[in-house]
Amino acid sequence: MVSSTSSTFDFVVAANRLPVDRSVSLDGTVTWTTSPGGLVTAMESVMRDREAAWVGWAGFPGDAPAPFDDGRLRLHPVGLSAEDLTDYYEGFSNDTLWPLYHDVIVPPTYHRSWWNAYRRVNERFAEAVCEVAAEGATVWIHDYQLQLVPAMVRDRRPDVRIGWFNHIPFPPVELFAQLPWRAQVLRGLLGADFLGFQRPDDARNFLRSCRAVLDATVKGDTVRWQGSDDGRLGGSPRVARAAAVPISIDAQGLRELADSPAVRARAAEIRESLGNPQVVLLGVDRLDYTKGLRHRLRAIGELLADGEIAPPEVTFVQVATPSRERVEAYRTLRQQIEGTVGRINGDFSHLGDTAVHYLHQSYGREEMAALFQVADVMLVTPLRDGMNLVAKEYVTARHDGGGALVLSEFTGAAEELHSAYLCNPHDIAGLKETILRAIRDDHEEKRRRMRMMRRQVRTRDVQAWADDFLRALEMAPARPPRARRSISRLI
Ligand code: GDG
User: Fold this and answer.
1) pTM greater than 0.90 (yes/no)
2) Which of 74, 104, 329, 412 could form a disulfide with 198 if both were Cys (CB 3.0 to 4.6 A apart)?
3) Could you list the residue ranges that cross the membrane (predicted)?
């Protein structure tokens, strides 16, 4: 619990967004509600018994509101102007780093003005972290939007312990090397004591980049770097560890929700409203080019054309949650997807029998849990995805033991959910075969696969993830003596 007199905290989380959404009523009353999301749930259990603060953007442009307590923790907003949002968030984070870190599925855009904004905003986050961190505090920084914050905090506050977790992939050095500011980003990250990644390959990619770009010494999972950018020794030495700590979900919470009478009743209602098909195929994704929606629709379209599936017996429901709508690549994707859905429905739907139910909307947690229960086959086919929580949510929500999961090899989840129907989404013929196998395999085989995956998610839930991360951070190499030279000066 936060005592109202505390101004500094032993545990500080920094993420792009605060875990709350603001709403202003007609009479001007401001209320904050906890935003739904895995990170909030994960952090909740970690923060419960500590004096904790969360640093992040409040979700609207302009000056930051004053720090406030929401009963559980101190919320410390960081202000972002409209220009910061365009350049730091939509620009450098979502149009430079996001495509670069996802296998360059669309070409990344490199703009020096975006980089300058990224550096400026990271500086602001670092200042806020230092303001709220108590002497010797643990600081947990999240994700690709804040890669410079570790070194910026380290320079100001050598007393704190710093961890950073990457929710998205870390690219192979051959791709990472494109980034004009690759050395600065690595120096920023090396301010951390421990760096957590979704997959062992992501951690390896990071370590290789440190060796190739900074000429750092890498032994096993530990990187040592002298902190000099000019080839001379004698900068501030850094030692950091990088390893995989795969994120997970609040499995128990979702299981209880999915098992509630209201959600069960809603699931029955949804199936009824779809016309009680024999097979419901489901996709749930942010409308993002990494999620493989175009490839999935191509496979579905061909299966319909081949006569392998047809409404009303088989129907496909695609929830495509609106996302990053001001970024050009996302607007183009939406047009492509909606054009394809229109063509498929024009060719294969009949009055009352829809081939593809396309929903460009967000739903509540209950509705999502009900949809998962309706899905006989869940299609999770990203071209690249750090983890993909939807896969873990689906197997957990099917507490009745039914269902089947088609899962792309290019997700972090595929490293753990070996019993899924694994697929390469680029191979359309293979994807079609895998979907048909997931539909047609016998009941017992499907139950066996689902049972194994449910057990995996139950034992490796979000609590285990947070515990593992913090343990690794605690055990990270001892910090070298006080830095003799600023690292962030080199960024
Ligand atoms: C990033 C990484 C990594 C989606 N639509 C609705 C809704 N959702 C929920 C899902 C799930 C979450 O949003 C999406 O998580 P994902 O993991 O699938 O993907 P990203 O948003 O790309 O997340 C990813 C993740 O960070 C965590 O580290 O796994 O790889 O890209 O929980 O259920 N939830 C509700 N309504 C919706 O309409 N309530």
Assistant:
1) yes
2) 412
3) none
Domain membership of residue 485 (yes or no) is no
Question: Per-residue pLDDT tens for 53-101?
Answer: 999 999 999 999 999 998 768 999 999 999 999 999 999 999 999 999 9
Q: Is 247 in the pocket of ligand 1 (CB under 6 A)?
A: yes
pLDDT tens figures, 438-474: 999 999 999 999 999 999 999 999 999 999 999 999 9
**In this structure, is residue 384 part of a structural domain?**
yes
Distance CA 173, CA 297 (A): 32
Pair 169, 184 in one domain = yes
CA of 388 to the centre of ligand 1 (A): 7
Q: Whose CA is nearest to atom 18 of ligand 1?
A: 388
Residues 182, 119: one domain?
Answer: yes
Same domain (yes/no): 135, 256: no
| CA–CA dist 375, 294 (Å, integer) | 20
- Ligand 1 within 6 A of CB of 386: yes
Tokens of 351: 């009055």
Q: Do the domain assignments include residue 483?
A: no
The alpha carbon of 293 and the centre of ligand 1 are apart by a number of angstroms equal to: 15
Whether residue 107 is found in the same domain as residue 255: no
Q: Do 221 and 305 fall within a single domain?
A: no
- What's the CA gap between 249 and 253, in Å, rounded? 9
